[in-house]
Amino acid sequence: MSSEWSYAHDLVNMYLGIAQLADSELTEDEQTTFTEKFREWMPHLREEEFEGIWAEVRALYESLGSDDNRYAVYLQSILNVSQLLADSRDQLKYIIKDLAAIAGADGVLHDNEATMIKATACAYGLDVELKQDEETQVVQVVFKSQ
Questions:
Q1: Nearest alpha carbon to residue 130 among 94, 99, 105
Q2: What CA–CA distance (Å, rounded) separates 144 from 146?
Q3: How many CA atoms lie within 13 A of 49 on its CB side?
Q4: d(CA 138, CA 100)
Q5: Is residue 72 part of a domain?
Q6: Does 1 reside within a domain?
Q7: Tens digit of each residue's pLDDT (9 = 90 or more) over 34-76
Q8: What CATH number is associated with residue 19?
Q9: Residue 21's closest CA among 53, 50, 51, 62?
């Protein structure tokens, strides 16, 4: 399936970035959470459309060869989404919550994941604090007022 890069591709790229790029591991829990979060944004997509987008993003991710290149494309996706949703602060906050949920899905919030989430929030004009619940391991996002 060949299609042009879209907002859906940017979301998948961001979710893959937080799930795999941050700690070099894509766990089953992260991938399940990632898919659930994406489906909330794109409920109209048929399974084969999602699979096509996933395959295209995955192929790009693999072709980039280095983490530096992958971070550059992750940052481009952040900017693309920021431009698309510039008038919707609530949707940008929801994306930050999604990133935190994906990062914490494996029960561990790595420093690199936290840094990427905070950098994404900063790019969206948001200031966040991340807290991982000791008991449930769920990562909470606290938005600081500005």
A1: 99
A2: 6
A3: 12
A4: 9
A5: yes
A6: no
A7: 999 999 999 999 989 999 999 999 999 999 999 999 999 999 9
A8: 1.10.3680.10
A9: 62
Q: What is the CA radius of gyration of the chain?
A: 14
pLDDT per residue as tens digits for the range 81-110: 999 998 999 999 999 999 999 999 988 899
- Which residues constitute the domain of residue 29? 7-144
User: What pLDDT is attached to residue 137?
Assistant: 84
Residues listed for the chain: 146
Query: What distances in angstroms separate CA 141 from CA 62, 65, 96, 108, one per listed residue?
Result: 30, 32, 8, 15
The tokens for 33 are 């959470």
Number of compact structural domains in the chain? 1
pTM over 0.85: yes
